[in-house]
């Protein structure tokens, strides 16, 4: 696509110009992001949940101080995602590994985020570790219309017992007036090994695909974003064969899915989490074809990125360069998460006179 450069920044609206066009054009930018918050649990033992095994509950002392610092660290990251271009925190951000709504309320009420006036969409899920997914949105920028939680029914290949894991969250609403659908995921882990656990993530992908198909059966031109910690790379079966995500935006078929993170992984070696000196790009944001159009009269995809600032990485030791996680070796590290956040920029052409006369 044509190269774009930043033209004007304001707190609520940002513009870029198409430098190849003879007539200058201006674009509004919003950031849509996803972040695995790595065990954001409170310090209260819930007798109805298996939360006593969370890292913060396993601490012998200073739980309250650790929790407050963890919240501040998460707020610092959220406030910074996309700020380079949009001069604003994400308009919408999906999150995972959160215990309950209360931890999200503490997060969005942190001084760094309070002015953003984030709303929260969260359903209590059946995960055996008591971790859920959720969506945060700036109320001034996104208006949710409908939110639903979708149960993932999967079973262990050996025991045939049900695996209780995260639901998939579907939110439908208007981003600055444009209708979009957002799916937030946290697919089953690789516990027991990638091969043995693969069918569980394939099952999660099938549920995700059914939800996308159902939306497209109602509206073939629906703008759909599916995001999450998939515990699979862009090249794995769940993403490539089930979702049929394409890495080349020009080759995405009608009703197809584009994955801007596949080229980052296969061609640049980028990742969002590391294990045994190997990078994985488990955190991804994908989208349907209507978001790829060159008609910028409504919001379209511009570009994607991994928020891997230097302060989010380990500076020394055996894990130098890895994401600077919060908990390790039974203690709090004063770090952030074992995953880097990911984001996409959505842009829409605006007419300066109309924007200026608003309000």
Q: Which sheet architecture does the biggest sheet show?
A: 7 strands, mixed
Order of helices and strands: EEEHHEHEEEEEEEHEHEEHEEEEEEEH
Please give the CATH architecture: 4-Layer Sandwich
Number of helices: 7
* DSSP helix fraction: 10-25%
Strand content: 25-35%
Provide the CATH top-level class: Alpha Beta
State the assembly state of the protein chains.
single chain
Number of strands: 21
Number of domain units:
1
CATH superfamily: Endonuclease/exonuclease/phosphatase
How far the N terminus sits from the C terminus, by CA atoms, comes to: 33 Å
What's the pLDDT, averaged over the residues? 91
Radius of gyration: 20 Å
Low-pLDDT regions: 1-23, 355-359
Structural class: alpha+beta
Question: What is the CATH topology classification name?
Answer: Deoxyribonuclease I, Chain A
Explain this structure.
There is one protein chain. This protein is of the alpha+beta class. The chain has one domain: Deoxyribonuclease I, Chain A (4-Layer Sandwich), CATH 3.60.10. Strand 8 and strand 9 form a beta hairpin. Helix 1 crosses helix 3. 44% of the residues are buried.
């Amino acid at each position: 696509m044509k190269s774009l450069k930043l033209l004007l920044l304001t707190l609520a609206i940002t513009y870029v110009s198409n430098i190849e066009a003879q007539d200058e054009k201006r674009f509004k930018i919003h950031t849509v992001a996803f972040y695995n918050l790595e065990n954001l649990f409170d310090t209260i033992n819930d007798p109805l949940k298996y939360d006593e095994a969370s890292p913060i509950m396993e601490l012998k002392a200073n739980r309250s101080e650790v929790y407050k610092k963890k919240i501040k660290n998460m707020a610092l990251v959220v406030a910074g995602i996309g700020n380079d271009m949009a001069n604003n925190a994400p308009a919408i951000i999906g999150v995972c590994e959160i215990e309950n709504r209360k931890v999200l309320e503490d997060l969005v009420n942190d001084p760094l985020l309070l002015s953003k006036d984030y709303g929260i969409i969260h359903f209590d899920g059946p995960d055996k570790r008591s971790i859920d997914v959720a969506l945060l949105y700036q109320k001034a920028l996104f208006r949710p219309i409908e939110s639903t939680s979708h149960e993932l029914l999967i079973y262990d290949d050996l025991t045939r017992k049900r695996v209780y894991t995260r639901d998939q969250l579907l939110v439908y609403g208007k981003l600055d007036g444009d209708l979009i659908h957002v799916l937030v995921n946290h697919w089953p882990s690789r516990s027991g090994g990638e091969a043995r656990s693969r069918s569980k993530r394939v099952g999660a992908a099938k549920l995700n695909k059914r939800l996308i198909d159902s939306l497209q059966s109602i509206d073939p031109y629906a703008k759909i974003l599916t995001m999450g910690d998939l515990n699979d790379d862009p090249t794995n079966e769940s993403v490539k064969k089930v979702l049929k995500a394409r890495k080349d935006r020009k080759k995405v078929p009608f009703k197809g899915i584009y994955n801007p993170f596949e080229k980052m992984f296969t061609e640049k070696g980028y990742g969002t989490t590391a294990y045994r000196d190997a990078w994985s790009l488990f955190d991804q944001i994908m989208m349907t074809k209507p978001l790829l159009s060159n008609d910028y009269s409504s919001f379209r995809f511009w570009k994607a990125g991994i928020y891997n600032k230097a302060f989010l990485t380990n500076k020394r030791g055996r894990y130098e360069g890895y994401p600077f996680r919060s908990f390790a070796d039974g203690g709090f590290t004063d770090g952030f998460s074992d995953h880097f956040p990911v984001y996409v920029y959505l842009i829409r052409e605006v007419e300066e006179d109309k924007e200026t006369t608003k309000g």
